[in-house]
Amino acid sequence: MRDLPSKEANLFREILKCYELKQYKRGFKGADQILKKFPEHGETLAMKGLFYNHLDKKDLAYEFVKKGIRHDMKSHICWHVFGLLYRSDKNYEEAAKCYAHALKYDKENIQILRDLSLLQMQMRNLEGYVDTRHILLELRPQNRQYWVAVAIGYQLLGKPELGVKVLTTYEETLKEVPSTPDYEHSEMLLYHNTLLEEAGDLQAALDHLDTIEKQVCDRKALKEKRAKFFLGLGRLSEAEAAYRGLLAVNPDNMAYFEGLRNSLGLGGDRPTDEDEVKILDMFKQLQKEYPRSNAAKRLPLRYATGEAFVKVADEYIRSMLRKGVPSLFVNIKTLYSDSAKETAVEKLALGYLASLDKSKGFDHSGAVVEPPTALLWTLYFLAQHYDFKRETEQALGYINRAIEHTPTLVELYMAKGRILKHAGDHVAAMGALNEARELDLQDRFINTKCTKYMLRADNMAEAEKTAVLFTRADIPNPLNDLVDMQTQWFSLEAGESNLRQNQVGRALKRFHQVDKHFNDYTEDQFDFHTYCLRKMTLRAYVSMVRLEDQLRNHPYYVRAAQNAVQCYVRLFDKPDGSESEEMEGMTEAEKKKFRSKQRKAELKAQQEAEDKKKKAAVAAAETAKKAGTPAAAVKVDEDPEGTKYTKCEDPLGEALKFLQPLQQLASDRVETHLMAFEIYVRKNKLLLALKALLKSIKIDANHATLHEQLVRFALAVQKASSAKTLKPSVKAVIDQHWSELYDAHGQDLSAFNVAFVNKNKDLGSVPHVISAAMSTYLINPSKNLGQAELLLFSVAEKGDKYKRTRTLENVLLVQKTLKGFKSSRQQEWKAKGNEWFPNAVAFQ
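The line above is the sequence of N-alpha-acetyltransferase 16, NatA auxiliary subunit; the predicted structure tokens follow.
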């Protein structure tokens, strides 16, 4: 508006309104009208750039906005628009700089201050957020949102007591308080109470609940808080009454039962014999009060021991088998951490089966005849039980007998598939799940499980056909619907299948899809920074912000990151793409022939990809024509093979992009630092590798993989010292921490490794044996191969020492390690693997 006549100034105001109302084309025309007369008016040029941005013309947008700033460097509108442009591209740091620049020329602009505060919250610049919100509060003290925002800032900074002061001050300024419960005011009061609780003043929080009770809408939260505060303050009789009141409303809430137990003075994970009797009496009484509560029947199993457990378990399991509850084993298996309880459950179930076979009842008296389905669900339970123990033959025997009894029950085929999966026969497992799917073609869950098993059997074509049965049919490539719907399990399973088949590009493409989903989750929180303050959903908002802060700690992201790092490390180690595993033992002529075959296969795959691309483009055009949408709006996969990921110039740099979010948000996971070491040691950044090792030691000093990495680090330092590439300053830091890494063994890696073996020899851990063997081999590959082989074959010793950890996964890992050693004893190990896991395809 600066330097414009009144007519154009009014038109400029209309342009600003058009932007607020999202009437971008109309605003664009208005900007052109002004620029015809005043082609160098900076603010109009900037607004035209902003309209270009919303019309998907990014290059022109930046060009016009920068031109506008050049013509009017001191305009807050130009700098604000530049910030909005950066914000739309998720470049929050540059956007914040632009907003800060705009505030130099208009310090009290409410809109710019609000936009800046949103960016500060998004970037978790909490100190800056509090400062900006304080300025807004001073400018508009009558606005409730600004008071609450300051309190939230203090809470997230870990200063809830300051948040309490802010809200108390605001509440004192209120002239009128709603006489009837008002949702927004109610939420603010409950948030105030939450701050008191976080500040640690439970008595004040309890007193506050009494004062706000009549104004609170969320009665359940009020009751839960009161019960919690009574318990925290040691007012046990009042806590007991409060928790009994909550149970009357919801007798299946586990937390209420735990609260009641603690209020009766029966807390603790390991109750005494006297307390155990009281706990069981309490649950008997509760079972009479709430006969339909499953929690009241299930929880006694956690606390009962010995004969009392047998009695309680007998009642519980009988009733569940009688009713035919498929989830019975899922409820029971958490008790198997106690071997005595596992044995008792097994004895009971076998007893039921023998009695049902003999007298059709759960006991041999024959007084009560159970329904025919009782036998079916007993067999189903026993199959799951033995599968959990990895006793495959017995599990298969029971599940096959159950299928003979009732061949139309979907759950039986799913259980059989799970047993075969654990046994290592993924193809047969896929077949069992496909039978289950065909029994109920309208069940999306079974379809999903079947797809997952097909991917684990590396049958990608069938998996894709099965997955798209429940996707949109009106798009050229229905598989894209799975990506749009953020179906992470599919991306992960498909990526891991591609990785097993050495299709690194396709695998990376899938793992990047998972990464994009998590980026989307992070970006999606932006709109909630204003929405939640406006709607006063404050407790949920703070919970969401804290969840976002640890989002990358989610198992899905960690799994995708580990696989992606593995892919990029593989690309770095073998930049030519050759897979040495496939060429091991070949002569030069055979290798030449194999490479030629690979090249032909690659050319064929490229041609097929091109054909597929053309077909997809034609299908997209047809779909767009039918739907009446522009052809450009229909997505076509330009890189189905993921070539752009395999052709990257800096694989380790790309791997770091997956690692860095974990370093920020999942630094308490040892996997994060183990991955970091693999990257930094290859980049020859020994200090960063040292830092990763020190953090791993702090989290889990006896981690199996960590030991091998420590040996590799020492070897890397020795190599750098011998080559005289190790800087004295770097060596000084490494020397300073050497004793933390290698105790008193100094430079003697063999002694360090022997100490590790001796320390873990009674642990019975196969991963630790593998790590020791790998370390032994690395210390001196030419001399120590036999010793490394002996360590690995110690896993096959008779007795139960390694039985618990001699899982299929670990046995396969030993096989892979022997292959890496180019050991002559590979077939011998394969025979042992076949003996332990006769169903596993890998050993056949």
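Note on the example: The domain at 6-184 is CATH 1.25.40.1040 (Serine Threonine Protein Phosphatase 5, Tetratricopeptide repeat). The radius of gyration is 33 Å.
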